[in-house]
Amino acid sequence: MVNYRRFMSPSFRSKIFLASFLCVGLPVLICLSVYSYLTRDAVEEQAITNAQKELSLVEENVSNLFDDMINVTNFVQFDTELNTILKQKSKEPPNNSPQDYESYMEDKSIRKTIENITLLGEKSFVTILLQNGAYYTNYAIYDYHPQNYFQTEWMEQLQSLSGYRSLWVGAEPTVFAYDRVDHPYQVSMARTLRDVNQEIYGYVIVTILETKIRNVLDNQAKNETIMLIDQTNDIISSSNEAMINKSLPFGQQLEAKNMSQTIQWNEEEQLVTMTQFPVNNWKLVSIIPYKEATQNINSIFSNVFFLLFMSFVLFFIILVVLMNRITYPLKELNTSVQKVQQGDLSFRVDVKSRDEVGQLASSFNQMIIRLNEMFEEVKQTEIRKRHAELAMLQSQINPHFLFNVLNSIRMTSMKANDMESAQMLMSLSKLLRATIGSTNEMILLKEEMELIQDYITLMNKRQRNKIVWITDIEKEAETIFVPRFIFQPIIENAIIHGLQQGEGVISMEATMNGESMQVMISDNGRGMNRETLTKLTESIGENIFTEKSHHSFSSIGLANVYERLRLSYKSDTKISIESEENMGTRVVIQIPARRDNGV
């Protein structure tokens, strides 16, 4: 039970340690967590960057292979001399027809040209196949007969191409008998040869062995797999030969617009990076396990994180030791306070430090001394308290005595048939009782009207000229609570300043407007000119009611009304004054409709 209470009400020292941890430790932990979260993104970004760099090197080498194929095709298609011979040959009988010497030399020149244009680049198989069946190659026809190209599945697609467009054929079984064993697949590029009328007279086909591409892909890290795929995600070349001519297993997971992304494959997260060749829209896809891609970078970040964490632990230990030394005097001070609480006023705090805790201990000792000195003063205070209670009782008795005396005088006047004096005494008695005999601040508007009526009755008895009092109060408004005597200062101003204690008419109207009540008090006195009214209105808006005024209204009386309304209703009240010189004055007050006295 004790431990539970201590846990629910920790000591000041515990609060300091907790505050230190919250102010220092918690931000550090948050920073470390954010650092860990941000480094994950940085690690992934760096891994992607590394993968893209490696893939760009592979792309460059594969592009060189494609460029060599394109260069051969371009030479055949655009060389003027070669094209002239080929166009002429396309109109002659096939190669197996008897040839004259000139035709023989032209064929030899074509084959020599094909041999020459393939010497500089990678070895490739070049085939020029004319529509009449004539052909020219840089390989022996017993390996593969060129006219067999007419039977391929893609020949019809090649014939449908227009202009200089090329057809790229993905991995096919190698057709060249000599290379078929060591190189099971080949990759080809084909283009049509057209005359000035855009009629096809022949075809140029450049073929390379797929192993040339695979050799480029195999030169990467052991844990990285790079594949060459076509537009339909079919694998053209891969470091894993078994995957060639198969569909990319995770092709559906790839986002076409995102060239680097992470996917789940083989029950492991993989980092996939892609790049596209513009010449044929084929893609290179790099696949590397995410853990292996980020292993080295993660190791660096983990070491930094560990050093930061150990630095925080060391710093916190030092903080605990320092805070314990700093708060030890507070523990001693607490022990002293408990002794004093038990009644031992002779105990003194023994803390000699010169800091705030030492000053507090010194002040505590001075307080104990002062307590002993105040014991005697308490007795005198008790005596003065009893005297004050007696005086308060007397102040409660005096008003009642005054009311009883006034009532006795009223009864005597009535016995003497002096009804006018009796009426005045009754009105005065009611006003005095309402002023000093009641504790309720809020009264009904109906009761407030009765008090105003008594006030006007007394004022009419004091002066020669009588005041005509006219009221027009809605029935619902009579049940609204208002501050006691809130309208009396306005009535007094109207009598003294507006009517100048002469005869006249004062009227009061009260109407309901939803949840608010509007009270309008008017007189037919001398009123105010525009300048005076403007100054008074501005003073109301600015709450300036400290200076005395000789205008048709007393600023002191208005200050009393305004301040009481502001205290009672806050800002939900409005006061406006309308007046014209020699035409009287009207005060309009709008207040919330309060239907209880707030007690």
Protein architecture, described:
- This protein is an alpha+beta fold and 599 residues long.
- It has 2 domains: 1-323, Beta-Lactamase; 464-592, 2-Layer Sandwich (Heat Shock Protein 90).
- Helices cover 50% and strands 19% of the residues.
- The chain has helices at residues 2-8, 12-78, 80-90, 101-117, 155-159, 210-218, 290-341, 356-415, 419-436, 445-462, 488-498, 530-541, 555-569; strands spanning 125-130, 135-137, 166-173, 185-194, 200-209, 225-229, 235-238, 260-265, 268-276, 283-289, 442-444, 467-473, 481-483, 504-513, 516-523, 574-580, 584-592.
- A 5-stranded antiparallel β-sheet has the order 2-1-5-4-3. The chain has a 5-stranded antiparallel β-sheet with strand order 7-6-10-9-8. A 5-stranded mixed β-sheet has the order 12-14-15-17-16.
- Helix 2 packs antiparallel against helix 7 (290-341) and helix 8 (356-415) runs antiparallel to helix 9 (419-436).
- The longest helix has 67 residues, at 12-78.
- It starts with a helix and ends in a 7-residue tail after the last strand.
